[in-house]
Amino acid sequence: MRFAGEFAALGTGICWACGSTLFFTAGQRMGSLTLNRLRITVAAVFLGTALLVLKGSPWPVWASARQIELLSLSGLIGFVFGDSFYFRSLVILGAGRATLLMSLAPIFTALLAWPILGETLGTSACIGIALTVGGLGCVLYGRSQAGHEHPEGSVLVGVISGVLAALGQAGGYVISKIALQSGLDPLSATVVRVMAAVVAVWLLAPAQGGLWRSFAALRDRVAAATMLGGAFFGPFLGVTLSLVALEFTKAGIAASITAIYPIFAILLAARFHRERITLRIVAGAAVAVSGVVVLFLH
């Protein structure tokens, strides 16, 4: 099918935007830590099932000990550290602005890949970074002036959480790339990362006072349904479509198309959560996304 990769990349962006919108609803009702704990567990079931169907085993027994060590560390940094802050940012700022903050992840990835992977930054990459930061500043400036308060923190806490989330995602990605360079397929790598995160979040649950709270949250049907929907559209279907996109088109093209998902998230947030869209938000989002595209294509 012509343009199969491009359509898959577009589908990835739509799925991630839908997942973020659903997670926002779930996070408002059950809290960010509980949401991260439950959705990563559900995602592990979805991904393990997909690996079983495609490869014949729910766990990649073909992965080496070194690959598992690297991917487990990647999962702890990306899913436990990064996503814990992402969901806090999500419930404070809303789906539109929280997902837009994740546009910082490619910048942090490029900066970390320089010393770790030996990937240098060129002039176009620096332009992409400047565009992304400038666009984000435009979007977030007006929001930061509002006297908005949330049980999980102020707007400033939401912004800092979003930046830390992007840093965690970048760190997890760079470490994953080291493991993938040794020949392991992306789906197997994702299963290892997610399972390491599942073990970690449940071991941490008693210390965070959230063990029984997690099970109690499932009694809220709306919260449980939106969490399940978010886990399906985000970590499962979105990741699967991203792999299809990488298979049928160039990585830079796939990543650039997928990078527009904050725009979809902003539109969905305006439709379902009544987040106001202003000209500043639209312009800033467009500039930030263009910066991400430049980064991926440099």
Task: Please characterize this protein's 3D structure.
Strand 1 (149-150) and strand 2 (153-154) form a beta hairpin. With 298 residues, this protein is an all-alpha fold. The radius of gyration is 18 Å and the shape is globular. Helix content is 81%, strand content 1%. It has one domain (4-297). It has a two-stranded antiparallel ribbon with strand order 1-2. It has helices at 4-30, 32-55, 65-93, 95-101, 105-117, 123-144, 155-180, 186-204, 211-217, 221-248, 251-258, 261-272, 279-297, and strands at 149-150, 153-154. It is built from 13 helices and two strands, in the order H-H-H-H-H-H-E-E-H-H-H-H-H-H-H.
Describe the structure in brief:
The protein is mostly helical and 298 residues long.
SSE topology sketch:
Layout: H1 4-30, H2 32-55, H3 65-93, H4 95-101, H5 105-117, H6 123-144, E1 149-150, E2 153-154, H7 155-180, H8 186-204, H9 211-217, H10 221-248, H11 251-258, H12 261-272, H13 279-297
Antiparallel strand pairs: 1-2
Helix pairs in contact: 1-2, 1-3, 1-10, 1-11, 1-12, 2-3, 2-8, 2-10, 3-4, 3-7, 3-8, 4-12, 5-7, 6-13, 10-11, 11-13
